[in-house]
Amino acid sequence: MLIHKIEEVRNKIREWKSQGLTIGLVPTMGALHDGHKSLIKKSVSKCDKTVVSIFVNPIQFCPGEDLDKYPRTLDADEKLCNDVGVDIIFAPSPKEMYGEGHIMSNDFLTYVTPPFFYVNKLCGKSRVGHFDGVCTVVNKLFNIVQPDFAFFGEKDRQQLIILKKMVNDLNIPVEIIPCPIVREESGLALSSRNKYLSEEDKKEALALSKILFNIKACYKNGIKDCKALTETAYSYLNSNHSLEYLEFRDANDLEEKNIADENTIVFIALKIKNVRLIDNISLGEL
Amino acid sequence: MLIHKIEEVRNKIREWKSQGLTIGLVPTMGALHDGHKSLIKKSVSKCDKTVVSIFVNPIQFCPGEDLDKYPRTLDADEKLCNDVGVDIIFAPSPKEMYGEGHIMSNDFLTYVTPPFFYVNKLCGKSRVGHFDGVCTVVNKLFNIVQPDFAFFGEKDRQQLIILKKMVNDLNIPVEIIPCPIVREESGLALSSRNKYLSEEDKKEALALSKILFNIKACYKNGIKDCKALTETAYSYLNSNHSLEYLEFRDANDLEEKNIADENTIVFIALKIKNVRLIDNISLGEL
Hints:
By secondary structure, chain A is of the alpha/beta class. Helix content of chain A is about 35%, strand content about 20%. Chain A folds into 2 domains: about 1-180, 3-Layer(aba) Sandwich (Rossmann fold); about 190-280, Pantoate--beta-alanine Ligase, Chain: A,domain 2, CATH 3.30.1300.10.
């Protein structure tokens, strides 16, 4: 069932809650791919009712980013959701979420602000204000849908860690369920922004996963020094790549690591032409 | 029932929700007086179950403020609550609310940040960060108690307006119920900080309500110009008073008023010796 209005979602939720049903929420910006599909399936199998939100959230885009050209594919998204048994597709307009007028700034809008220590690094460094926008919209969606479980992909690992911190800090009665990255056979992590890539670009984009897989292999072979591990990466990069970061950080609090261990995540971001791609890998998991 | 632990409150709330009972929350910092009592009574009469939280919230105090000497009277508070039929008194420790260590800063803690336009004036001007602390703790309490209704006094009118804005902006499923200021026969608005005043100081403190009552009388007599209305105030002030602000603002969005109308609130803050007192009056109400 496709719903555009907050009040209509609330009415359905109230009905379900009164029946004692559990609710899963999968927040997305649409342009759904198999990565999203795996999150949605997990929710459908775990919860009595599943809500997928589709909202390209303006306040998490920075000036100059791709808000206007971000892929919007509602018809296809709706079909994917219906195929896997989603109960509500919640697709509000920006006006429905933020009201009218020029209120989408912290001059006139209440924000949920994640801790500076979690946002002053990795993607937060180049995307100033991005995670404030993410936390604010996810908080709003939590308040509207009141889910028992919310499903987020490990592809956006910094986001996942920040949202877990938000839930903990604000005592939000929602359990965050992390879901593994889904990759093409080539290794490329699925992303809605892959739509921006030509076939040629896509080959260049393999550098991300290759670097991460190689670092993990070296780590498993006994190299623990992060500087040494980083150096193994550069052979995968060429002049088509503009590396934004390659960093080793703690899986819980994003503290920087000098010596890699089972609790280390390797984060990478790089640009191919004007397309910015991210990926990450946990050294601890098999 | 006095409860110190979040998990214990959650268990009770879950039980009540499953029975379809409505829940009222009265957030306080303790040192309860007849003003709080009127809020609590309203909740008890309106809701099936009433939770009063008692928590001197460290993050809403600014450096140099009265966090350490703020009155703490838990035994008397408990008695007052039990007398009027409160179901849960929730009195957590700072550690229970914020965890251990030095995390009470926006470096390491997720905050709920009210809009700058609402906090850069009145009390927010001298109490930088105060309303961030208020919004954050109230958001936490809402997530813990999940009330249908929350009761706040009009004594802290800027806080009330900011919290209503927060509820609206973040789609929080709680209805805020404003409760009128309770005054001594003398006119003095009840406040936990009145405990800091000597009998002599208390007489000086009457300046606040006298100024407000006089402005309202002049307004009712036809004076609408805010500058003219302000001038009527100064005859009540003497060298024992240090006026922080006397301002006319819109009841919904705190916009400044030059011409008073039925939607205008008059706000005053002044210090007597080192005790800072606030009061306000709505020109619209009878």
